[in-house]
Amino acid sequence: MSLDSHIEKVLWTQDQTLDRVTQLASQITRDFKSVPDPPLFVGVATGALFFFADLVRRIQLPLSVDLVRAQSYGSGTLSNGAPSISLDLKLDVKGKHVVLVEDIVDTGCTLSCLIAHLEAKGASSVSICAFLDKPSRRKVPIKLVGDGKFYKGFECPDYFVVGYGMDFAELYRNLPYIGVLKPEHYK
Ligand code: 5GP
Ligand code: MG
Ligand code: MG
Asked: Which residue among 10, 37, 78, 157 is least crowded, i.e. fewest CB within 10 A of its CB?
């Protein structure tokens, strides 16, 4: 039973994925070059793990890294509504320029909750870097903090995608590309 045999359709290959990460990192490097204090990059566990690691290693600036965990999805493909922060940051964000790194923005509930949390802790700006965005499913608009920007890798059609950190029922995160499962595996 091979991993690839579970995939119906590849949306972005490994090469396309990493090329886009390289471009995002160059843009972020340019945008933050003139900011005097090192920015803080916060990865949203677990989905953003691989994107986060690939992204920050391509950014040519001194920076700090930390993680948060927010739970908004159960084991299936539907949101359970209000997300909660189940692992908070280790570092102090007060006065920091923070870049929140997410795998995918869907309804926007998770990011809105995390942005509000960082703003309440005194971040001086909050930017978003999401590998995928599904704007067609947005329920809550993304409100950035200060002069924060919204970086995105690709717009995603309305499929439940897996791979490059994204799971279905905690499987398929290790797929090195992004795809859609065969229907019999969404069970
Ligand atoms: P939101 O709060 O924006 O509705 O959802 C955010 C989280 O839901 C994402 O960070 C991701 O973990 C999960 N999610 C949303 N869409 C997808 C998808 O197509 N595939 C996977 N695997 N997870 C998704
Ligand atoms: Mg996520
Ligand atoms: Mg998930």
From this structure: 78
